[in-house]
Structure to design on (463 residues):
């Protein structure tokens, strides 16, 4: 019979032909293969119907702490009977002689009618030549004995007693060949083997998209830096998308030309009455206009993922936190080589009593270093909800110029105080497509969505 066999399989079959039944450990010695090679070879042969694996287990018994003590000194009830063999004794004397085993010894002795008691003394009624369990203790001693060698009835009595008997379960495997395997002729050389270096046709198997690879890499970096991912809805009330972040209701970003509103849909519940009251007051005081709750109720496709983390902060009010949110966001912008109406964003926060802007810069530098970007600098900038604010700039070697990536800063008191957050909050966020463009050397963000198969096949990873 012709079979294509791996060299590992050949060695196992050859060894089993010489010695019909072997354990994996014996096969290791007879084939000079590693334990992992033996394990894999056996599984391969099983799948091909060439090997039989027989599993069995044996139970051996040894004495526990109390069992060893009873083996050397005698069972507690035997020691009690020995003390009464020549004369009756007072209860307190027996307690003193036997210590903490007096109780169980006396209980068994009375139950089996071996002793009796008067008002003052305990005296012997019967003295058995062999007590239940003594035979088992003598057989085992300080050795390990197969359970099959012990009298089952005598053993059952002693098994009920704590820490007298230890059961040791030993599982074994035996490997043997099927009749088909026995008929296989193992030949030397390359006959029947696969040449792994031979040319094969190109097969385009399932692959992950480069942008998905970048998203997964970013997620892994922040998780390994000690951050926890939080998830939020892609549709948000304007209250959390804008108002909670101290963005005034007349800000240009809230106009139809910049934001996608869900036509005719308003949120019934946008926050607690306390949150609404304090955010309203913050806007009135900071921006000096009459805040309109109906504007805050309007539903939008989120323009950033910061709305997810600010809501998380408001609901949990942590003293310390390291969280990030990663997902799609939407901007009503003209599509160009660097802008899309729908893209992916990573955004995160750190909450801590002693958190500083320098800590935030350090986190960003470490993130960029891990993703492979080393030329970084920070420029002062302005964002409505952070102060101070910085823009991360990274150097594009191919374009030979600095390009902007993440925005970052410390949440303003007008953002945190109305929500009951008392500790400093470091925040940052930015588009993932821009990082992916740097990573894959693209000048046009639209390339990620053009389904250029030749580029995808040359760039993506096989799964």
């Amino acid at each position: 019979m012709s079979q294509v066999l791996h060299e590992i399989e050949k060695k196992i079959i050859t060894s089993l032909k010489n010695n019909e039944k072997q354990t994996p450990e014996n096969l290791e010695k007879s084939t000079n293969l590693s334990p992992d090679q033996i394990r894999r070879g056996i599984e391969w042969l099983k799948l091909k119907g060439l090997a039989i694996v027989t599993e069995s287990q044996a139970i051996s018994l040894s004495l526990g702490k109390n069992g060893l003590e009873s083996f050397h000194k005698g069972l507690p009830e035997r020691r009690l009977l020995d003390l009464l063999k020549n004369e009756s004794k007072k209860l307190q004397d027996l307690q003193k002689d036997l210590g903490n085993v007096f109780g169980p010894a006396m209980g068994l002795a009375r139950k089996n009618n071996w002793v009796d008691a008067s008002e003052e003394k305990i005296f012997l009624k019967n003295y058995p030549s062999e007590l239940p369990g003594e035979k088992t203790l003598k057989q085992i001693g300080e050795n390990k004995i197969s359970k099959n060698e012990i009298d089952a009835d005598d053993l059952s009595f002693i098994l009920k007693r704590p820490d007298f008997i230890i059961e040791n379960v030993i599982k074994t495997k035996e490997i043997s060949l099927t009749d088909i395997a026995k008929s296989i002729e193992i030949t030397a050389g390359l006959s029947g083997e696969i040449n792994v270096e031979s040319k094969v046709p190109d097969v385009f198997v399932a692959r992950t998209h480069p942008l998905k690879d970048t998203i997964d890499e970013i997620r892994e970096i922040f998780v390994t830096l000690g951050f926890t991912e939080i998830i939020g809805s892609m549709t948000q009330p304007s209250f959390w998308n804008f108002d909670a972040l101290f963005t005034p209701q007349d800000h240009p970003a809230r106009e139809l030309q910049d934001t996608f509103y869900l036509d005719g849909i308003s949120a019934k519940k946008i926050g607690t009455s306390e949150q609404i009251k304090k955010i309203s007051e913050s806007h009135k005081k900071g921006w000096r206009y009459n805040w309109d709750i109906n504007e805050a109720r309007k539903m939008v496709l989120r323009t950033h993922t910061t709305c997810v983390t600010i809501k998380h902060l408001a609901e949990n009010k942590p003293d310390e936190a390291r969280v990030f949110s990663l997902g799609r966001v939407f901007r009503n912008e003209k599509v160009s080589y660097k802008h899309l109406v729908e893209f992916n964003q990573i955004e995160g926060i750190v909450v801590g009593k002693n958190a500083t802007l320098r800590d935030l810069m350090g986190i960003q530098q470490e993130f960029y270093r891990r993703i492979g970007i080393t030329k970084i600098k920070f420029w002062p900038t302005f964002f409505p909800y952070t102060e101070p604010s910085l823009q991360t700039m990274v150097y594009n070697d191919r374009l030979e110029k600095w390009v902007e990536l993440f925005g970052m800063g410390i949440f303003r008191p007008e953002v945190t105080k109305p929500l009951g957050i008392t500790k400093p909050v470091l925040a940052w966020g930015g588009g993932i497509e821009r990082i992916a463009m740097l990573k894959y050397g693209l000048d046009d963000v639209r390339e990620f969505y053009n389904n250029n198969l030749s580029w995808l096949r040359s760039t993506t990873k096989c799964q």
